[in-house]
Amino acid sequence: MKRFISVVLTILLVLTCAAVGASAEERPRPWAQSAAEDAQKLCITTPAFLVGVKDYAAPITRGQFAELAVSFVAAQYGFEAPNTDFIQEYFHNCLDPNGKPYVWTDYVYLGEGRTMSPEWVIILKEYYRPFTDVTGQSDRAFLICAAALMGLVKGRSNGAYDPNGTITRQEAAVILTRVYARCGGQADGEARVYPDQEEIGAWALPSVQTAAALGVMNGKSDGGFHPTAAYTVEQSIVTFDRLFAPVQALLPPFYRGADGQAALPGWVAELPDDLLVFQQKTDAYTLVCVGHESGSPSGGILEPVGDTLYIISPKGGYKSVTLPHAPNRESITWNQDTEQLFYTVTDYDVHDHQSKDYQYVFNVKELSVVLLGETETVSQ
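Structure (tokenized):
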């Protein structure tokens, strides 16, 4: 009996150890930690992507990799996510894989005499169906379709994309270099030789060599490339992070001025003076505070209310933050050293006939608005 109990305990111990060893990596492992944090700051990985990651050491799916690819391009232009603004700006300003402008009527036919606004988000969600197995309107399906239309990913030979399938190392190299080329890079590299080079597909070898030349993907510790090994989530994040600087150096901006240099989006120049609350240019971005018209429902006088801050990248993309209240224009001050915008908001209480000033600060680096304090109440 004692021997039986001992055997049972031994089996339980082995199973327990196996379960612990097979536990999911809920955070990037130490070797990938720094790059993963950097990718998050650069917006290569978005909150929506990270919430779906349960195991960083697990093989990444083809759907996840497509999502990362689109987020990467959005981040290159200065967007915080592959959102509606990015999709509209990209397909309006960039060329397709054949070097021609995107034309929405190439992807949707409404019938004779019918027209629609060229909303690329609607086209991607409702009409553009490049793969037989990506037919829904989920965020993942939307981004897979966007990646296909951008020329970043392709499907299987049977017309499917296989979004839940995994990515091999050589497939990852192909997509990474395709992203690089679509953003202005030259997809070539030194003829690096791996011990297992004969195992690399002829269709993937140029991309493997380009990825190695860029320092994006290297061989494993034994010197081999291992082309058919599965690519993990953390490996994918690390390689997109490594690719960021090479692409950023080459990426043409959405907008150029008469001098050929990067320019602000057209909508900034078209803002009327009463809606352009504040504008400040730095080497890294342009900060623009934009107002909107508001007034009484009965048709009273309309007056500008500044409530949105845009951080516009030299590449033409932007991040935006909604201010809690409209700032007093004359109170706005900018601190270049700390990259902070200070302003005051006056709140008037119609019942007490009193007003109070609140001091706020907007931190560009953190994209946050903080209440600093308030002044004494003044009788009116």
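Strands lie at 276-281, 286-294, 303-312, 318-322, 333-335, 340-349, 354-363, 368-374, 378-379. Residues 52 and 64 are 9 Å apart (CA to CA).
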